[in-house]
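User: Please fill in residues for this 349-position structure.
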């Protein structure tokens, strides 16, 4: 899930082709923080494109020289003064790619002129919206299968990873709220794609955990907002080797990438892990999600409409509460009453 669109990736691929091998390898080390070891030049270019969060981030790198960007634009027929500064060259490059995108979109659009054609188009659009509502459950299930299979495969005891885990799967300003209640209880917020991806990776790669989601109708709930945010709530069990360590409950906020077809990236994650010793008596090891879609939508409304100061929950507040349930609610009690919203703990048994 790269931060670049297909057109941007293709353009950057051509631009990077103007660098020599040593420059490509050095740039790959910088972009991936030396965590990826490419086998050859093409492998290094692929890594650079996948791990770059935006065009600006990539082209502003010192190793992408001003002369290289100028030469690329010249090969594309974009004539600009040779003395143009680098930041202006980057803007010219972005403008050129945007123009190419508009031309491609214009080529694929078919004008609707007849009344009957317009009616058919509107009917298809309506059916498409209805189908999209029905598919949220399927989207949530497919996402969870992909996410947990990829994350769990990073566990060194399970053999070779099944795919590349990294910040490319998250929006750059992603937030992770992690609450755990094991030998101690705590809640910590993590910000940014790099930090969030590394924290989640450490659960399986360093702590050797295995997260097993319950994807039946009781363990998985999905909802969407009017703005296009899809929320996925899932519950499951936590294992280490042959031992069940407890349960986890998780809410994902997903936003579709507008430049890459059928691609969603993670905007926020609320993760709650409860150790077996901290579970209430009688709690089953196949946890269920009891909230409904309306609860998820209310949860979304609260986290998007409240100010940052009203949403922040300190570690001490959570520990002193004795339960830590607020860690996933993220709500201000007085504000919720004022808005006449009754927001339960989004993931409870």
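Assistant: Residues filled in for all 349 positions:
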């Amino acid at each position: 899930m790269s931060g670049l669109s297909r057109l941007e990736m293709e353009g950057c691929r051509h631009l990077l082709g103007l660098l020599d091998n040593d420059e490509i390898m050095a740039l790959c080390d910088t972009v991936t923080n030396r965590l990826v070891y490419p086998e050859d030049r093409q492998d290094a270019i692929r890594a650079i494109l996948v791990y770059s969060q935006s065009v600006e981030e990539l082209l502003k790198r010192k190793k992408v020289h001003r002369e290289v960007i100028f030469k690329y634009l010249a090969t594309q027929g974009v004539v600009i003064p040779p003395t143009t500064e680098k930041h202006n060259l980057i803007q010219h490059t972005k403008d050129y790619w945007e123009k190419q995108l508009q031309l491609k979109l214009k080529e694929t659009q078919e004008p609707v002129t007849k009344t009957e054609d317009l009616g058919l188009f509107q009917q298809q659009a309506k059916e498409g919206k209805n189908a999209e509502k029905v598919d949220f459950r399927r989207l949530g299930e497919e996402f969870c299968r992909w996410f947990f299979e990829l994350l769990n495969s990073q566990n060194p005891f399970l053999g070779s990873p099944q795919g590349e885990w990294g910040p490319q799967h998250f929006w750059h300003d992603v937030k992770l709220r992690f609450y755990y209640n094991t030998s101690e209880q705590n809640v910590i917020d993590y910000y940014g794609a790099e930090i969030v991806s590394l924290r989640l990776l450490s659960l399986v790669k360093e702590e050797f955990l295995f997260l097993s989601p319950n994807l039946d109708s009781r363990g998985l709930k999905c909802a969407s907002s009017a703005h296009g945010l899809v929320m996925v709530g899932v519950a499951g069990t936590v294992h280490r080797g042959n031992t069940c360590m407890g349960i986890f409950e998780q809410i994902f906020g997903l936003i579709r990438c507008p430049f890459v077809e059928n691609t969603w990236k993670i905007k926020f994650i609320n993760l709650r892990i409860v150790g077996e010793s901290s579970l209430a008596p009688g709690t089953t090891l196949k946890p269920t999600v009891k909230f409904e879609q309306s609860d998820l939508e209310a949860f979304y409304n609260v986290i998007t409409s409240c100010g940052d100061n009203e949403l922040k929950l300190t570690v001490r507040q959570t520990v002193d509460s004795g339960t830590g349930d607020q860690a996933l609610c993220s709500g201000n009690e007085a504000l919720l009453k004022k808005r006449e919203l009754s927001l339960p703990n989004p993931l409870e048994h």
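For context: The chain has two domains: 6-108, 138-338.
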